[in-house]
Amino acid sequence: MATAARAQLEKALRWIEENWVGQKECAICGNSGWFMGEVVGEMKQMNSKSEWIPNTGPSYPMIVLSCENCGYTLLFNAIVLGVVEG
């Protein structure tokens, strides 16, 4: 993994650790182990026909955190976490 990407993910992990209060168990299976995706992902906009809009419209940078057991996934806005600029 490139150094810049690693630094982004380490910053995101610190934010999550500092701000996630309360129970850390998965809402689906009760497991408490989580893993973070290795890249900053994005959520793309869809049009009124629920079709993906390729290379147009806004996208939202996301940090992906998934349950190690069942794969239940949490999405964190990477701009809010301070990982990328908005």
Detail the poorly predicted runs. Answer: none
The tally of structural domains comes to 1
The end-to-end distance, rounded to whole angstroms, is 23 Å
Query: Order of helices and strands, N to C?
Result: HEEEE
Overall geometry: globular
The residue fraction in helices comes out at 10-25%
Radius of gyration computed on alpha carbons:
15 Å
Structural class: alpha+beta
How would a textbook summarize the main sheet?
Answer: 4 strands, antiparallel
Strand content: 15-25%
What is the count of helical runs?
1
Report the count of strand segments: 4
Average pLDDT score: 86
Per-chain topology:
Layout: H1 3-19, E1 34-36, E2 41-44, E3 59-67, E4 73-77
Antiparallel strand pairs: 1-3, 2-3, 3-4
Label this structure with key terms.
alpha+beta
Could you characterize what this model shows?
This protein has 86 residues and is of the alpha+beta class. The protein has one domain (3-77). Helix content is 20%, strand content 24%. The chain has 1 helix and 4 strands; from the N terminus they run H-E-E-E-E. The protein has one helix at residues 3-19; strands at 34-36, 41-44, 59-67, 73-77. Strands 1, 2, 3 and 4 form a 4-stranded antiparallel sheet that branches. Strand 3 (59-67) and strand 4 form a beta hairpin. The longest helix is centred in the N-terminal third of the chain and has 17 residues, at 3-19. It is globular and about 35 Å long. The two termini are 23 Å apart. The relative contact order is 0.25. The mean pLDDT is 86.
